[in-house]
Amino acid sequence: MYRSAPRAVMAALAAGSATLLLAACGGQQTTGAGDSGGDWKPTKPIEYIAPAGTGGGWDTLARTSARVLDEAKIIDRPMRVVNKPGGGGAIGWSYISQYPADAHKLFVTSPPILLVPLAGKSQQTYDDFTPIARLNTEPLAYVVKASSPFKTFGDLAAKLKSDPKSISIAGGSGPGSLDHVGLAGAVKAAGADASEVKYVPFDGGGEALTALLGGHAEAAVAGASEVTGLVKSGDLRVLAVSTKERSEILPDAPTLTESGVKYVFDIWRGVMGPKGLSQAQIAYYEKAYKEMTEHEAWKKESEKLGWTNAYLGSKDFGSFLHEQNKDLSSILADVGLKK
Q1: Which of 4, 129, 228, 285 qualifies as a FRET site for 64, CA 20 to 30 Å off?
Q2: What is the pLDDT of residue 299?
Q3: Are 181 and 188 in contact (CB under 8 A)?
Q4: CA torsion sign, 172 to 307 to 141 to 206?
Q5: Axis-axis angle for helices 178-189, 153-162 (nearest 10)
Q6: Residue 331 has what pLDDT?
Q7: What is the 3-state secondary structure (H, E, C) of 249-277?
Q8: DSSP state of 15
């Protein structure tokens, strides 16, 4: 979706601002740290949006990265995390879209920035924002309560084949978004009808897991980092993880492939900003996040949370988003969720 630039931005361009970036024909900015366009530093605290409630993957990423950036003195001003839950992320994106070219506002992101618009649930698409950096990846985990009769993903898949309406599966994203697609793809690959599955959406993995523990669902799908604590405490059992290799923080959990289901789904996470950021502003944040991913404190947090480093700068992140959008569009169409 192409969104025309605000009048103030166009005026600045006409006035000869060499550092202002505007996307043409719906394309992403392709500026990298190698072409900084001059020096820039933030002059006030940075509002750092987690587009979901507390306890989920976005909230964890925002608070962890903000803490490392602040404590390591990588950022010149404080990073203030603000939760804006709702709409599978759409409420947070809508908020950011109201501040074009404001480099003091950033948000953490992941596949829902592609999936929610593809499902027709957001007025904004990834093209309405500036890619800053991709940071890491992690697997989805398909979990049940420790007392559940389902011992393997195959057990769950068999029930979904024979009586799909009898099983409710909670997820921390809206219909057609990350957890739903990660579930639908696995269910389809296992031979069940993904469109028949009773997916129950919540705002964040924390809420979805609370619903599972409270008996409001028979299973749940969430990021590996979100379930680890409850697995270690013995409250939850992991049926499978979605990555090609086993998760370092859930080493006893088999992959879907090991379970006989040929499906792989990586959760990537990163940072974006409003449309229209300058080359210098993009370069500043690229450098900061690159330095953060190389810092020992971040590496320790990543190991604890099960995150795999997958840093990409702005230009490469933008290209990655384009390719991901094509791939996920195809998946959504396969399971009848694309609008």
Answers
A1: 129
A2: 96
A3: no
A4: negative
A5: 80
A6: 76
A7: CCCCCCECCCCCCCCCCEEEEEEEEECCC
A8: T
Q: How confident is the model at residue 9 (pLDDT cuts 50, 70, 90)?
A: very low
Phi-psi region of 86 (alpha: psi -120 to 50; beta: other; left: phi over 0): left
- Count how many residues are written for the chain: 339
Torsion of CA 186, 191, 193, 198, to 10 degrees: -50
Q: 165, 218 in Cβ contact below 8 A? A: no
pLDDT of 19 > 70? The answer is no
CA dist 270 and 130 (Å) reads 11
Contact 217, 211 (CB under 8 A): yes
What gap in Å lies between CA 162 and CA 205, rounded to an integer? 27
Q: Which two tokens stand for residue 23?
A: 């996307």
Return the H-helix or E-strand segment holding 80. Answer: strand 79-83
End-to-end CA distance of the chain: 13
Q: Is 171 helix (H, G, I), strand (E, B) or coil?
A: strand
Instruction: Look at residue 38 in the predicted model and tell me its pLDDT.
Output: 62
87-113 b/e (C-beta count within 10 Å ≥ 16 → b)? bbbbbbbbbbbeebbbbbbbbbbbbbb
Whole-number Å distance between alpha carbons of 11 and 119 = 35
Distance CA 48, CA 82 (A): 6
Burial class (CB in 10 A: 0-12, 13-18, 19+), 306: buried
**pLDDT single digits (tens) 232-278:** 999 999 999 998 888 888 999 999 999 999 998 888 999 999 999 99
Radius of gyration for the chain, computed over Cα atoms and rounded to the nearest angstrom: 20
pLDDT tens, position by position, 69-97: 999 999 999 999 999 999 889 999 999 99
Q: Locate 114 and state its tokens.
A: 């592609």
- Give the contacts of 151 (CB within 8 A, at least 6 positions apart): 237, 239
Report helix, strand or coil for 321. helix
Number of neighbouring beta carbons within 10 Å of residue 27: 11
